[in-house]
Amino acid sequence: MIRFDDVSVRYEGAAAGPALTGVDLTVPEGELCLLVGPSGVGKSTLLGTVSGLVPHFTGGTLRGRVTVAGRDTRTHRPRELADVVGTVGQDPLAHFVTDTVEDELAYGMESLGLAPAVMRRRVEETLDLLGLAALRDRPIATLSGGQQQRVAIGSVLTPHPRVLVLDEPTSALDPAAAEEVLAVLQRLVHDLGTTVLMAEHRLERVVHYADQVILLPAPGAAPVTGGPAEIMAV
Ligand code: ADP
Ligand code: ADP
């Protein structure tokens, strides 16, 4: 579902050298794949190449090729990838563009040209899926961190992306809220067959949710992939 062919990324003027060097990877369809490694190793950069943020919004030079469901992320703008890949960052508040939960879920579909009835149905499905139905009319600013992160996930789910990319989605959450978010992700993978790629630096917290783990051991080093038990042993 996600494929990296010899991918390198270099930011202009970065003294530290390339952020990624010669990465080859595949993430199979319908798996929850965890991306781990120390801070600064290139996790956000790798996720950005999948969502199209790198190089379109961050600057930097991308060599090689990243495809998601067969679409080259460099030749599509992130907006043109909304029905293929949904992206959620660490800070849900940075993500929101509308006031209420329901409006936010609808917003992500606006550029897709869907019929209003289809959009309404998708909002209902997503409210149910994420356990947000009772909060639909609430201003997002009044929700807890875990609820906000679920709204952020919901807003990128309504275009029905095949891939969901998350950059440390639980980093600002307490353990109970983090568990809620992880349970939602697991449900997406199992019930809808969504492919999830999630960066996380606290391996122990999330490793038991993963089908596959990608470890970036050091800047510029090749990724190591394996099952949770194999990676825990590295
Ligand atoms: P991680 O997510 O693992 O912490 P990043 O992908 O954020 O790693 O960063 C990898 C390297 O690229 C770091 O040295 C970082 O300083 C550098 N970097 C990240 N984004 C940019 C940018 N927009 N411009 C210049 N350098 C960047
Ligand atoms: P429609 O455009 O009529 O909603 P789709 O072919 O896009 O039909 O989706 C068919 C079904 O797949 C939906 O009814 C929904 O249950 C499920 N589905 C697929 N992907 C997602 C997703 N990302 N979020 C929620 N439901 C999804």
What is the compact description of this entry?
With 234 residues, this protein is of the alpha/beta class.
How would you describe this structure to a colleague?
This protein has 234 residues and is α/β, with parallel strands linked by helices. Helices cover 32% and strands 23% of the residues. The chain has helices spanning 43-51, 53-56, 101-107, 116-129, 145-157, 175-192, 203-206, 228-232; strands at residues 2-10, 20-27, 32-36, 61-68, 71-72, 85-88, 163-167, 195-199, 212-215, 224-226. It has a six-stranded mixed β-sheet, with helices on both faces. A four-stranded antiparallel β-sheet has the order 2-1-4-5, with helices on one face. The longest helix has 18 residues, at 175-192. The mean pLDDT is 92. The chain binds adenosine-5'-diphosphate (2 copies). Residues 11, 14, 16, 19, 37, 39-45, 58-59 line the site of one adenosine-5'-diphosphate (ADP).
Descriptors for this entry?
234 residues; alpha/beta; six-stranded mixed beta sheet; four-stranded antiparallel beta sheet; 8 helices; 10 strands; 32% helix; binds adenosine-5'-diphosphate; ATP-binding cassette domain-containing protein
Describe the secondary structure blueprint for this structure:
Elements: E1 2-10, E2 20-27, E3 32-36, H1 43-51, H2 53-56, E4 61-68, E5 71-72, E6 85-88, H3 101-107, H4 116-129, H5 145-157, E7 163-167, H6 175-192, E8 195-199, H7 203-206, E9 212-215, E10 224-226, H8 228-232
Parallel strand pairs: 3-8, 3-9, 6-7, 7-8
Antiparallel strand pairs: 1-2, 1-4, 4-5, 9-10
Helix pairs in contact: 3-5, 5-6
The structure holds adenosine-5'-diphosphate (2 copies).
